[in-house]
Design goal:
By secondary structure, the chain is an alpha/beta fold. The chain has 27 helices and 23 strands. The strands form 7 sheets. The protein has a 10-stranded mixed β-sheet, sandwiched between helices. A 3-stranded parallel β-sheet has the order 21-22-23. A two-stranded antiparallel ribbon has the order 2-14. It is globular. The two termini are about 35 Å apart.
């Protein structure tokens, strides 16, 4: 696994002289005939409608492979009840690429209360139920049924975040990796353009897919004890981060070994010898030796059969998994599943700027496939006038999976590439009236931010660059982003550039000039930010900054709005029932909202999603942000429906429909003093609200997000997760998927930071 990756666009093209880029990638035999194709090299199967735009995974992956000379077809939202729809384009010459779409299929279909959603933003007319539960597994099985012996490559956010044993909220149990269930040949995770392109060229050259085992960002099944080469060594994860009872540090001058009595966690590794002979080396020699050892070491996680029944070892495995996420120092990992192992190579190396430009500059039609006619596809409506300028996030919020999926290293496009896309929207996208709806990414203001020292970046094992405080090695200069905003505004025909993506306000306050630029020119009346909570308990489990940063940002926001002569509002988002949250925490948040005259229209309840650290807390009641032991910190976790509803009701304390459950909750908490009709009370005493009370509430009400959105002519804001793009096997891929709601946008924009 080379540390110096081959440039994405340096491969010898497989293109025949008569093969021209398709107006749209074909979805039918008739379209293939029109293009003069007798077969497809790769067929991508997706749970989303096919929209030829880089915010949609199947389009990005398809166009990338097309640029390499491969013939790519699309099977979109097939009927999964039989194998016949998977034969629509014939048998692929190389492989089926299977993806659930831009969202995990379970998050797409179900709410945090496990109820089926009434719509699907990625389907024509928003029609629900157009994809199965656990779509990657179902599609892969049907494709194999359609053509036995065909190569199956799985990817997308769903496959990426289910690549090891994981807690599944919808079945309330630990499920095994998606690999053995789908029976796929290989899984490509994260932003895996590199692995996808390399894999496709090698399969096209005749290399068996079963022998391709050296690609970063891939996972596959192997026999027990398998190693890429004999010199590889295996390290038990319990030596990397020891679970069980914590022993005192040994006396360095005592030569005998101590027997770790009382270790309450079985399956832990035996202690290593206390004395080792260490050769004295220079710093560079030591670093090089460590790199060589790490590059030939695989970390064995506790087996699926163990973690499914042992919460402590599940939390331990989750912690080790996240610590091995930096591509600069991550080791391979392996986890037993029955009689076979799931092997995970280290994460993919980030794309360079010219590679990012190449990915986004390809020949996209920037429209839904013509077969949909005039059908309205909500996700397309949300993003068709927006531009993605970067990917990745170093925030590390525990409820969000962007960092695990896209990585914490920011990958940015060049200024000219971004400006070219704005001009393309102006000139080619129907209905454009001069307003770019978003210029952002997973986090709007992380564009071109990076560690000040590449060597430090490659050796860092922090879970977040901004928690508990902003790292001193992190560059926070926003000048390049300010320059980009100014050049974008100056493009002829562009009337307005809005920034609608999630904003990391603790970073923004480091650059008052950026806040001024943003507030003066790029806020359309409303700016959505996500404090998520007001109390230290839940914030510490979210890895989010305290309210001091919010207050400072609010002060700058109001100052610069006033200087610009604009009436503008901050719209804060909050999560109910997040791990680490008590009833008292939610009450204090409700009092904070009342004190600050916030009356939220839309709120969300925490949804445990695969692989997120907060999900580990929910399932195990342990804190994986620190070493996990039997005696380590227990995390307060709200699991019953009644208490989850109470926590959600606190966020909408002003809604008469919530007054009964709030009165009951306040009485149980011994806070009946907050029940009454005075200004300091939270809810009235009346068993049922009278019309006069409701009218009085409305007269006192500060305009909520819905009313403000209507006033400023914007779409109704949604607090949901922006979803990570999921190129099929590229990520093969707002909150990235913090995934508590379908995305506000089809790309990673609009996330909650």
């Amino acid at each position: 696994m080379s540390a110096q990756p081959k440039n994405l666009f340096s491969y010898t093209s497989q293109r025949r002289r008569d093969l021209k880029p398709a107006p749209f990638l074909p979805m039918s035999r008739a379209e293939m005939d029109k293009l003069g194709w007798d077969s497809c090299d790769v067929i991508l199967v997706t749970g989303d409608a096919y929209i030829d735009h880089p915010s949609f995974g199947m389009a990005l992956v398809g166009r990338l492979l097309e640029s390499q000379g491969f013939r790519v077809g699309i099977i979109s939202q097939p009927d999964w009840l039989s194998a016949e729809p998977f034969r629509a384009l014939g048998k692929p010459n190389l492989y089926f690429g299977i993806t659930a779409g831009n969202m995990d299929s379970m998050v797409n279909r179900y709410t945090s209360d496990r109820k089926i959603r009434s719509d699907d933003a990625y389907t024509p007319h928003g029609e629900p139920n157009k994809r199965p539960d656990r779509a990657v597994t179902v599609y892969a099985q049907r494709a194999r049924e359609a053509y036995p012996g065909v190569n199956i490559v799985i990817g997308s956010i769903e496959a990426s975040l289910r690549r090891i044993a994981h807690y599944d909220y919808w079945s309330d149990k630990v499920r095994r990796s998606v690999l053995p269930d789908s029976k796929a040949d290989i899984l490509i995770f994260g932003n895996a353009e590199r692995a996808l392109v390399d894999l496709t060229h090698r399969v096209a050259a005749g290399e068996p897919i079963s022998s391709i085992r050296d690609l970063r960002g891939t996972a596959f099944m192997v026999p027990p004890g398998w190693k890429p080469t004999p010199e590889w060594t295996e390290a038990n994860s319990t030596r990397v981060d020891t679970p069980g009872k914590v022993e005192p540090h040994p006396d360095p001058y005592e030569m005998k070994m101590k027997d770790p009595e009382g270790c309450k966690t079985e399956n832990a590794a035996p202690p290593e010898p206390a004395v080792k002979v260490i050769k004295i080396m220079s710093r560079e020699e030591r670093r090089q030796a460590e790199r060589e050892v790490r590059n030939k070491t695989v970390v064995r996680l506790p087996a699926y059969e163990v973690v499914k029944d042992d919460p402590v070892l599940y939390a331990h495995a989750s912690r080790v998994f996240h610590l091995e996420s930096n591509p600069g120092n991550a080791r391979a990992m392996v986890q037993a599943h029955g009689e076979r192992d799931v092997w995970l190579n280290p994460p993919p190396l980030p794309l360079a700027m010219d590679e990012m430009d190449g990915v986004y500059d390809m020949n996209y039609a920037r429209a839904p496939h013509p077969s949909y006619g005039k059908a309205r596809i909500p996700a397309w409506e949300m993003i068709r006038f927006s531009v993605n300028i970067m990917r990745g996030c170093f925030g590390g919020c525990t409820f969000c999976s962007i960092t695990e999926h896209e990585g914490r290293i920011i990958q940015s496009r060049s200024e000219p590439s971004i400006l070219r896309e704005i001009e393309l929207i102006r000139d080619k996208v129907k209905g454009f009236t001069g307003t770019i709806s978003d210029l952002g990414g997973p986090t709007a203001n992380m564009y071109r931010l990076a560690c000040k020292d590449k060597r430090i970046e490659e050796s860092c094992r922090r879970l977040s660059c901004v928690y508990p405080s902003i790292c001193s090695n992190l560059g926070t200069d926003h000048s390049k982003l300010i320059q980009l905003y100014r050049k974008a505004r100056a493009i002829p025909g562009i009337k307005k550039i809005l920034v609608s993506s999630g904003l990391r306000y603790d970073l923004a306050v480091r650059s008052p000039e950026y806040v001024k630029e943003l507030v003066s020119h790029h806020v359309g009346g409303l700016l959505k930010i996500a404090p998520e909570h007001s109390e230290e308990g839940p914030l510490s489990k979210m890895m989010k900054p305290g309210m001091g940063a919010y207050d400072k940002f609010k002060e700058l926001f109001e100052k610069y709005s006033k200087e610009a002569g604009k009436e503008q509002y901050l719209i804060p988002y909050f999560i109910a029932a997040h791990p680490g949250t008590t009833d008292e925490d939610m009450l204090n948040l409700a009092l904070w909202l009342k004190k600050n005259n916030f009356r939220l229209d839309q709120v969300q309840t925490f949804m445990p999603t695969p692989m997120a650290l907060a999900t580990t807390m929910y399932h195990t009641r342990k804190n994986p942000l620190r070493k996990v032991t039997e005696e380590s910190e227990a995390v307060e976790t709200v699991r019953t429906g009644k208490i989850r509803k109470l926590h959600k009701a606190f966020l909408r304390y002003h809604d008469p429909e919530n007054w009964e459950i709030l009165r009951e909750g306040l009485q149980r908490m011994g806070r009946s003093d907050l029940i009454g009709s005075g200004e300091h009370h939270l809810v009235p005493r009346h068993a049922a609200p009278s019309r006069a009370i409701i009218a009085a509430e409305h007269r006192r009400e500060t305009p909520g997000p819905n009313q403000l959105a209507k006033k400023f002519g914007q779409n109704k804001p949604r607090p949901g997760a922006a979803v990570v793009r999921t190129p099929v096997a590229r990520n093969a891929g707002n909150r990235g998927t913090n995934t508590t709601r379908p995305a506000r946008t089809a790309s990673t924009r609009g996330g909650r930071k």
